[in-house]
């Protein structure tokens, strides 16, 4: 069981109690909503005669159905117009801040929150969108949720969740020319698989992530869900603080200094214990593309797309899911991955796994407007 990680600290700080099911009732510091998954949630509140418990902790925007060319109302798409009217009415009647078209703050929900300083380290964040894991780049624990859970957060500001295991994914070294953050996360997913992260929170660590900008870290955390992880995060550091400083909802003055102290305190301890550790060498990562129907079906641009026969052999020979520390490098080649080639005889990748034993190893996030 993990101990001393950022995930553990934030989880414990936001735990309201333990439910009869054994799940944790987890307080959600920031709830982001949009026009696609919120109308049904508000309808369920009305059916039960419930009100939004903490409207000041919910921020709404519209980002999925906004027309590109003509944004004149009513929208040409009747369903899009219906969703727009619903979120306008629901936010107004419940006193929820809504960043509508023309507000100057409207945009992709996972972008506007970081840009305005709403997303901060140590927070729990939920949104009815699978890629809410993006906010983990700031050291937040962020969950994509379904419509019924959107209802739950609106009504109680909490979620019922089973605590996740924590896998540390460490990437060290400098990336080769032409290799970027998207290549890194695609390399991780094609190695561990699209179900490899099921039941886990991913902590992205190592010198490669330390060098990344906030935008690059957001790219990585955005795709944690594509690897099966419930969320992914990077420990906050000076890069994080510099990005947030001066933004609209970031603390100011003395409160800023206090926030920095708090944010530093929630970083994973040097001797933190993880349920699993996976280590990669950045030098082994090449520009990566996907050739199939999942992010796990990826190859380096210098490799060949597998034939159907080779693909079948690969699936049959996939290595087991990591249960200890895995180090992926190019010194030894995995037989399973070698079979992914244009011919069953050609090598497909340079990665392999060497297993070793893993080392033994309250405060609710909040924001305010300037």
The biggest sheet amounts to: 6 strands, mixed
CATH architecture: 2-Layer Sandwich
Order of helices and strands: HEEEHEHEHEEHEEHEHHEHHEEEHEHE
Quickly name the level 1 CATH class: Alpha Beta
Number of helices: 12
- Structural class by sheet pairing and helices: alpha/beta
End-to-end separation in angstroms reads 40 Å
Task: Give the rounded overall mean pLDDT.
Answer: 87
Helix fraction bin: 25-40%
| CATH homologous superfamily label | Aconitase, domain 3
In CATH, the topology is named Aconitase, domain 3
- Which outline best applies? globular
Q: Could you give the order of strands across the largest sheet?
A: 11-10-9-12-15-16
Radius of gyration: 22 Å
Beta-strand percentage range: 15-25%
Number of DSSP strands? 16
Q: Could you list the spans in which at least 5 consecutive residues all have pLDDT below 50? A: 329-370
Q: How many domain units? A: 1
């Amino acid at each position: 069981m993990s101990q001393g990680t950022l995930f553990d600290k934030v989880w414990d700080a936001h735990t309201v109690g333990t439910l009869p099911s054994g799940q944790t009732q987890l307080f959600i510091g920031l709830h982001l909503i949009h026009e696609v998954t919120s109308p049904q949630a508000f309808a369920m509140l009305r059916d039960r005669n419930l009100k939004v418990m903490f409207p000041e902790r919910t921020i709404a925007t519209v980002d999925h159905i906004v027309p590109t060319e003509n944004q004149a109302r009513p929208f040409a798409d009747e369903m899009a117009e219906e969703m727009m009217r619903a979120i306008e009415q629901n936010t107004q009647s419940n006193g929820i801040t809504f960043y509508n078209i023309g507000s100057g703050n409207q945009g992709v929900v996972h972008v506007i929150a970081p840009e305005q300083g709403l997303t901060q380290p140590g927070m729990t964040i939920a949104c009815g969108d699978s890629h809410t894991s993006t906010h983990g780049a700031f050291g937040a624990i962020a969950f994509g949720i379904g419509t019924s859970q959107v209802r739950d957060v609106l009504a109680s500001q909490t979620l019922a969740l089973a605590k996740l295991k924590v896998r540390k994914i460490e990437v060290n070294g400098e990336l080769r020319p032409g290799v970027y953050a998207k290549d890194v996360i695609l390399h991780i997913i094609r190695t561990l698989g699209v179900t490899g992260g099921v039941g886990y929170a991913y902590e992205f660590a190592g010198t490669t992530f330390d060098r990344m900008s906030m935008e690059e870290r957001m790219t990585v955390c955005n795709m944690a869900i594509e690897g099966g992880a419930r969320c992914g995060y990077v420990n906050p550091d000076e890069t994080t603080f510099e990005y947030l400083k001066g933004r609209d909802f970031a603390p100011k003055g003395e409160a800023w200094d206090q926030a920095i102290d708090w944010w530093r305190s929630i970083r994973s301890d040097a001797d933190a214990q993880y349920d699993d550790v996976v280590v990669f060498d950045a030098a082994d990562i090449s520009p990566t593309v996907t050739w199939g129907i999942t992010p796990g079906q990826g190859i380096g641009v210098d490799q060949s797309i597998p034939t159907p026969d080779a693909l079948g052999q690969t699936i049959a020979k996939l290595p087991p899911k990591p249960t200890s520390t895995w180090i992926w490098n190019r010194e030894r080649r995995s037989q399973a991955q070698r079979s992914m080639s244009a011919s069953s005889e050609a090598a497909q990748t340079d990665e392999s796994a060497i297993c070793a034993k893993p080392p033994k190893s309250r405060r609710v996030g909040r924001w305010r407007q300037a």
